[in-house]
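[Discussion] Sanity-checking designs against the backbone

I'm trying to build intuition for which residues belong where. Below is a structure token string of 728 positions. I'd appreciate it if someone posts a full sequence so I can compare it with mine line by line.
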């Protein structure tokens, strides 16, 4: 056995459990490390408190004087909590978070030391961020980037650092991050949804999008994970034969959570609760060593921040428990990968979930309005929604018969389908009194009862209605949810705006009553968005064919999926709602392609290294052992050795055959990479990586995995699936 593999296994087996001390009530711990409402009441003057709350709820600007007061208060609180540094915490287009710590500590001109943190430092910072991907924005405008305080997501203390959530924009105003466009999309959906919600309740003055994510991940022993160069550098295994036991017994799913994993989760949950991340649910997932965590849902911007923060903290806490967390969508071949379901809805400031049926026909008409408009929005922009979750790693999941297919469709269940069918039959224009009664009492009125026993679930659907929210299931486990949330809220905002226009026109010009007008427009939407509704098996070949007939997009890889971002229709959408201008959209497309290319390039290089420095040497070593044995047999038995060494010779040949194919394909892959690297056009380069480089990965892997089965365990250099997934 290679020394590295042996050491890793020995180390993992000798581990002591990292014990966790129980820490009292979660509700008392909740938010203790957050500059939240309680802290503001305690530390801020009345004026400053009001000003911050206005900024949070009405989006007003905070003036400099007030900012100074808020900074002073934050500093006092942070220092009392033991913090020494502060940082603007932001989301560059890398997909994760970034931070640069500065000490409160400063020197006065007279050389005396003080702790300083003022409004200027709170409101705006200029990190030297020239190395973040900007998709050419910074070159185009020769602009530097700065970070600016987002008061809607409260500051928090992690370790000894005060973290201030910020947006990251260029001096010319272009967003260089994922948060700024999300905030603009959330603003757009607030305006559009509030206007529509007012049809049903005049008291509504704000609507916010809600998000509750479900985060899946793998836990692997740190020593074992570190012994695999592919896991260390790419987050997944590029080689590895499936263990004899996989997930076929379903004995992991919802099973007893292993003690070591529970200890990790308890410590993690404690840190999260202190930071205001309302973690609620934890359970084993389908694959061995795969788990899921889910919080109580929150306002979408805050929820996105909390998910990113969770992922950061998970890595740190896991390290203490000698685990490595794998967020990659497909770390192991042959068993399930990980996703991050995004549960989404819209809620009013009057406390109503707009996607939850109510107790009166009017409430249900409101529910139907938002329900049908969401369906219509997804139908109109299905390809754009698909683009928001595209990545080299998520490409492994979508369409691989475990996660939803790459085709976006909506599952609403049979009962709600019946309701929509009935609404479709409503006559045009004015409704007769009988029709109205029938509709209100028997169709719309009955929705809550229907939904109570609406228990059918469809795990193959990428976008499913689950009783009082939509669940977007195709999001990747690594994906920053800001991306799909930005697109989803933008397309729904656009749709609701359109809806309002149409309804108002019917009321003004055709003199229809409000509910008649609403029914009329909804009926047309139900008809025109039918193709997006699909309740069947999303994995089946028939669905692929059917979806093609319905002209739904089926983009199986990232280069194909992100093309739509810069279509005329998309650019107009973003511009119309002031979510992004064309430069910002083009920049994002460029960054997605660049990231795709780089990730694929790294995987190609790692595979090349593994083949030449691990797999082939191991194969030769074992083959030599057999050759030596054959020669020995010949020495002893002379010509009679042939019968005895028949099996040996076959084995020698098999090993050689696999090695030949592996070497040839690896060299061909390297050539394909060179050709791709020489392409200047980013789009062509991404397709070259996708179509000409990536296909070699599976071919090479197939033969390496065959060798793993032929070669003796002692000689195999890479830690095996059996060890990675089962050593506890
Ligand atoms: P499931 O049956 O899918 O497990 P749960 O009720 O457990 O459903 O919820 C799963 C996720 O959905 C949780 O993260 C939860 O916070 C979230 N969720 C529930 N209601 C809403 C809502 N109105 N808006 C957004 N997310 C929600
Ligand atoms: Mg769910």
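Best answer:
Here's mine. Compare freely.
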């Amino acid at each position: 056995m290679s020394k590295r593999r042996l050491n890793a296994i020995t180390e993992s087996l000798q581990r002591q459990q990292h014990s966790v001390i129980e820490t009292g009530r979660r509700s008392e711990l909740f938010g203790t490390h957050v500059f939240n409402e309680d802290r503001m009441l305690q530390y801020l003057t009345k004026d400053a408190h009001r000003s911050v709350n206005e900024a949070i709820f009405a989006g007003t600007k905070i003036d400099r004087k007030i900012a100074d007061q808020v900074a002073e208060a934050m500093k006092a609180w942070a220092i009392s909590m033991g913090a020494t540094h502060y940082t603007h915490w932001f989301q560059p287009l890398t997909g994760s978070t970034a931070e640069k710590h500065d000490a409160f500590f400063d020197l006065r001109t007279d050389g005396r030391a003080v702790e300083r943190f003022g409004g200027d430092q709170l409101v705006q910072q200029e990190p030297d961020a020239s190395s973040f991907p900007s998709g050419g924005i910074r070159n185009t405008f020769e602009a530097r980037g700065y970070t600016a305080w987002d008061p809607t997501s409260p500051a928090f203390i992690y370790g000894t650092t005060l973290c201030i959530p910020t947006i990251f924009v260029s001096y010319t105003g272009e967003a260089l991050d994922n948060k700024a466009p999300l905030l603009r999309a959330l603003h757009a959906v607030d305006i559009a949804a509030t206007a529509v919600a007012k049809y049903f309740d005049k008291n509504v003055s704000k609507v916010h999008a809600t998000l509750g994510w479900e985060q899946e991940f793998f836990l692997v022993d740190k020593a074992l994970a570190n012994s695999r160069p592919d896991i260390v550098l790419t987050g997944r295994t590029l080689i590895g034969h499936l263990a004899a036991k996989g997930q076929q017994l379903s004995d992991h799913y919802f099973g007893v959570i292993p003690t070591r994993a529970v200890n990790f989760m308890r410590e993690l949950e404690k840190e999260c609760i202190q930071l205001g991340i309302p973690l609620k649910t934890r359970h084993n997932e389908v694959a061995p060593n795969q788990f899921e965590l889910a919080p109580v849902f929150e306002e979408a911007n805050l929820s996105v921040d909390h998910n990113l923060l969770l992922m950061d903290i998970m890595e740190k806490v896991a390290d203490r428990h000698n685990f490595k967390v794998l967020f990659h969508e497909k770390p192991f071949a042959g068993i399930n990968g990980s996703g991050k379901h995004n549960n989404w809805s819209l809620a009013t400031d009057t406390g109503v979930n707009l996607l939850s049926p109510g107790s009166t026909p009017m409430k249900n008409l409101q529910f139907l309005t938002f329900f049908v408009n969401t369906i219509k929005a997804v139908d109109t922009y299905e390809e754009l929604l698909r683009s928001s979750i595209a990545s080299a790693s998520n490409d492994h999941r979508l369409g691989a018969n475990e996660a939803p297919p790459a085709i976006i469709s909506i599952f609403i269940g049979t009962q709600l389908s019946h309701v929509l069918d009935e609404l479709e039959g409503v006559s045009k224009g004015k409704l007769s009194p009988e029709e109205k009664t029938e509709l209100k009492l028997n169709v719309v009125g009955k929705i809550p009862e229907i939904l109570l026993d609406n228990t059918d679930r469809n795990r193959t659907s990428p976008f499913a209605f689950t009783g009082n929210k939509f669940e977007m299931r195709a999001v990747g486990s690594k994906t920053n949810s800001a991306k799909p949330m930005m697109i989803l809220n933008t397309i729904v905002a656009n749709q609701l705006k359109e809806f309002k226009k149409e309804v108002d026109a019917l009321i003004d010009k055709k003199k229809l009553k409000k509910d008649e007008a609403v029914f009329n427009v909804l009926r047309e939407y139900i008809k025109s968005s039918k193709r997006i509704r699909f309740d069947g098996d999303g994995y089946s070949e028939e669905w692929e064919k059917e979806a093609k007939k319905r002209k739904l997009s089926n983009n199986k890889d990232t280069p194909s999926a992100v093309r739509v971002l810069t279509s005329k229709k998309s650019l107009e959408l973003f511009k119309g709602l002031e979510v992004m201008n064309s430069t910002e959209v083009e920049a994002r497309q460029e960054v997605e392609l660049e990231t795709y290319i780089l990730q694929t390039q790294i995987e190609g290089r790692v595979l090349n290294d593994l083949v030449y420095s691990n797999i082939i040497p191991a194969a030769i070593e074992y083959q030599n052992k057999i050759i030596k044995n054959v020669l020995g047999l010949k020495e002893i038995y002379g010509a009679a050795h042939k019968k005895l060494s028949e099996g040996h010779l076959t084995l020698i040949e098999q090993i050689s055959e696999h090695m030949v194919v592996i070497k040839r394909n690896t060299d061909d892959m390297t050539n394909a990479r060179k050709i791709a690297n020489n392409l200047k056009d980013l789009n062509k380069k991404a397709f070259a990586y996708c179509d000409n480089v990536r296909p070699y990965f599976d071919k090479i892997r197939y033969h390496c995995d065959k060798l793993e089965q032929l070669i003796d365990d002692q000689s195999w250099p890479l830690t095996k699936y059996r060890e990675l997934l089962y050593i506890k």
